[in-house]
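Progress narrative, work stream C.
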Amino acid sequence: MSDSYSLRRLRRVDYEQALQSMDSYIDITVDDLMELTRRAAQITIRRATGSLTVTEVMNQPVRSVRRQTSLAEAAHLMVNERISGLPVVDDNGRLVGIITEADFLRALGMPTQQPHHSLWQTLESLFGHLAHHGNLEAPDDPVETQMAHNVVCVGPEDKLHAVLDQMKQHSVKRVVVCDSERRVLGIVTRSDLVRVFFDRYTSGKRRQR
């Protein structure tokens, strides 16, 4: 069994037994040890991604829509491109909002995923809604009627740990990368961060062998 596998499966009882096995007295509690482990894990993540900037991992080019784009057109673009969020830009290409699949579902009057719901519960609610209301036509309202106006932006030279902090602070799944004039350069999603960390972690383990 590898050390990394053991660390991922540490439980409170493991800390308790470890403390009892030590010959000398240590003025530290199990909760202290668990908190130290949690903080050490956070530091490991920051070190693994600390040298990377947003430019190196962002998705580009970015598909975007205008304020006057219909929700139906935006939804069609999301499905065809397999994306869950579209930046909304003005006539000068500057970011003014973002429209997501959750915004589109709300526009249809459908239930969207709640924080305490699993994906399957959300899908069950969605199909139940369709069973009672029949087929729904895609709305022709413009995107600006449903888009979120307060978009979390980061700069292309920001570090990845700063992006993670922004996502946690604002509880969002994606951030838009903009230049100093709010022109859209790219997008970074939670999946991108997971992929980067996993790549760095696995490559680090290979070097240790």
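Work stream C, second folded protein:
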Amino acid sequence: MRRILFKDVEVIATFDREGRELRNGWLLVEGNRIAALGEGEPPPGPFDEVIDGRDRVMIPGMVNTHHHMYQTLFRAVPGAADKKLFDWLVFLYERWRRIDEEAVYVSTIVAGMELLLSGCTTTTDHLYLFPRGKERLIDVQIEAARELGIRFHPTRGSMSLSRKDGGLPPEDVVQTEEEILSDSERLIREYHDTSFGAMVRVALAPCSPFSVTPELMRKTAELARRHGVLLHTHLAETVDEEKFCLERFGMRPVQYLEELGWLEGDVWLAHMVHVNAEEIAKIAEAGVGVAHCPSSNMLLGSGIAPIVEMLDAGVRVGLAVDGSASNDHSNMIREARQAMLVARVKYGAEAMPARRALRMATVGGAEVLHREDEIGSLEPGKCADLSLWDISGLEFSGAADPVAGLLHCGAQYADLVMVNGEILVRGGRLVNEKLYEHIPRHREIAGRLVGR
């Protein structure tokens, strides 16, 4: 079994239940698990590799709880960049409808590269758009995730309401309920792995209340619970969505979800911007998780989610970069900084210390995905998912608190990233150099789809 020792790390921020931080720390990886960690003198060898942690901070690998990876092909699109959500969607559906297998593969690679370089080791993706004849796009994503080496939670999204049925998307990107449910079951059967440390787990994710029928929401939940997989959707993102739900269903989005049997502990929801205290208490009691997407919410002008109130109420909250057409990056450490800053705007500086934001990005995300026993903190027996940050550079000079400095001083890219015991980033660069060869093709595809 391969043994890798990290030694002389300035600070190891474990994000365990006690919030332990080890000074002059060491951490031993055996195979794909963390074997031991501590302060001062490390255990004796032999080791296959010893990594010097001087001028470095170590944190757990971050967990991205919501993304649309294909949208890396649609960043800063003229005509879309300054629209609110519904208008933004209608405009971009006309471009998104042209995606194919290659576009999905290459965009997943590029999004995953960004995530890995920014210290993210586990990511979800919400792919809900399936143009005619392109039904196996999730399979393509899983293949790309395996090339990347990232821990992957693809969610089989769905849309069944086109414009003619009162929805927003064009008819050629929606599917019938039979197609959606059949493919959802196939993906679970072929890819969902329940073993400890699994690299691929599948969830089911109808897009939103305004793009699927109530019947599909119920049937998807029944299917997911029959197979023991998680459920995910967008909810309460904008005032327009709230108005849609009130006009169409006679109730607010959270109440609508409750009526459908979705307020259960196997559900996590993206955004949750427009919710009140009663609704926060309800999701906390139900054990529903939340994916907080601060950059996307700001870029689209959707609002500031009441995340501090949710955390105080005991809601499981993780962090998310959301789609790269509404962010427009896939950088997790930047997202943690945004989460820290925007919460302070709404609630005051004391409401969101850097460590609270970093906790959302690490173990908070693991809790949302029901994987806190495997990932999200640095503890013996857990998966060896971690990141090491070089704090010797200009931007960190004078930082008295190196852990808080990751956010306060604006860290961008990790020096080293390990996933499942494999070093995927070293010296701030992806170890698999072939991944960089996808970037020129990604630019070509983006240009074609956007119409440049």
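The chain has a mean pLDDT of 95. No further action is required on this item.
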